[in-house]
């Protein structure tokens, strides 16, 4: 036997010196003497793509993550050659490419160093699979912090952490456990009040090391594929997140009911149990808009079927639930039971739509129905077929939403919990193994589901939720944080995960309120509800193995707390809907960690608990038992305690007393918060007033209210109402200015203006420069004004 030890221990390889370069439009190619090519593409002045190949040519350029509808363009691009480097300059940044080894560094226009290669790009030949293990290492600056990476159950600041991205069914995961369900290889760096982002668009198993192995080095690598990453310049974190979200895409607006409260369990059956649950919500006056059916609604866990013993007439049941305001959401998994008498299986088999092993046979795995085959959702023909399967569920039966689970993909009774790595995928004309397709399998399932639901629920808007996702999945689906546990630690984890996902492009997320595994105490459930109503997706879900987890499964006090906070969410629906509008229009995350809100305040860099809900509400959950208060950080500015209307000056950590039926909630001074009356479900009530809570500030503040028909697509034709609201406060004056855009006429005719924190007694009121008598607008000592909605400026003068 001949061994080649020099080959065996060859180790890392590096680019050699640049031999030539070409500049073609928005791209510049640098060619080295050892056949490495670096392609630098300027997508925007603040968005640069770096793509490396080691074989002398590039493979087909394809990505599931990038939103191809986005148009890119830069204002300025200049390439100059210096003695030891090439300099690329845009109107925002400068990039130096070293001639000796392709190492690069990026500066702002004042020559401040933002990001610098350490070893830079290097690779290791993968003799087991072919291709390369591709690697990148960069210097970490003093005090540099790292955020993002999506679904990570760890501290908000990732400094000192190593994380792994491989979508995994991780039942009852714990703090710091890796990997989890979602893969978002995007992080944000922050140092010296400058933020930047790195999106490593590689669907193989990837790793990120934030100065764990080496104190001053950050690195990322993948087990295959290309070194292909995007650099996003801020300098504000808001700019980085918005640019990344534009790059990977935004969802369409959901129907308003989707932002209500949802109830779920594994499982509610038979039909009588479902109706018992929904009736109890109405009896207790706890608002709820959606009821979920888990896998037991199916016939032997066969997707797109019904167990007629449990649900003899699903169409009738769904219609009756709808009459009571409940929308029905059902689960659909990827595993299709191998059963020659099962119509979905027969179709998939006849049309050759299932994933195959390398040697030809269909990939077989055990999931809930038993032995299953699995559709190859990376095949556009299969996605189209899958979308068509939803006709009966949506069009005929009346289901309003679909929930994709087990789509990491999860497989039972195998060591790696998923497909064998030799499984083949079409990958939209770029055939590959499961090593490359694994991390995007769940997203492509959700994509196919979304197109099916959208087709058959039209002219209404679709609702899809997924457990597994890759960057860009937010274009098709909402998500939740998977099989969490009913512990105080998991309440802490849920708070961080949803914040992290929000700044990682996936804004429409939430956790299983109360915990999926195990059983919460009444106190833990109440504290989780108090947090969960401030998450974009709000759903209680639990494993039936551990007891009941409806609000009435606890005591009267917990019922009252649940009613209070869920009712508050329903009051805040116009505020939440406006948050979502800003997310889809401008890429602004709905939840904002304090470091996103004020990166220049170093006190925010390691805060985990506090977050900004929308733009103007500060929330801090209670995360431990028996608490009568907590210490929390109030960001800079002025903030009103929501419960007491007491004004606090921020930029400091303070103790806040809380009761069991409260958590610390603050409203930014100057804000105008819109509120609806409490409804038991969206659309239950007709009302003639929109309440505007106006929080006085000596200064100026902008607010907004977005409304439309709450469902359907007329908003895309301009039939929406977008109010820009401005408060201007002075020592003895308050001015409220209003400007409306859009053709939608809201059904109410009046604003009920609630003045909070007004430091003077009102003596004079003007509306559009006309003095108004107090009795004409129902102004009283409680500082409420009831005014017609058609005004541009309200002017209050006092003494």
From TrEMBL:
Record domain Glycoside hydrolase family 31 TIM barrel: where: 251-579
Key words of the record: Glycosidase, Hydrolase
InterPro entries: DUF5110, Gal_mutarotase_sf_dom, GH, Glyco_hydro_31_AS, Glyco_hydro_31_C, Glyco_hydro_31_N_dom, Glyco_hydro_31_TIM, Glyco_hydro_b
Stretches assigned to the DUF5110 domain: 689-757
Stated name of the protein: DUF4968 domain-containing protein
Domain Glycosyl hydrolase family 31 C-terminal: residue ranges: 587-673
Annotated TM spans: none
CDD domains listed in its UniProt record: GH31_glucosidase_II_MalA (cd06604), GH31_N (cd14752)
Keyword Ribonucleoprotein part of the UniProt annotation: no
Family: Belongs to the glycosyl hydrolase 31 family.
Residue ranges annotated for the Glycoside hydrolase family 31 N-terminal domain, each copy included: 38-209
Pfam families: DUF5110, Gal_mutarotas_2, Glyco_hydro_31_2nd, Glyco_hydro_31_3rd
Domain of life: Bacteria
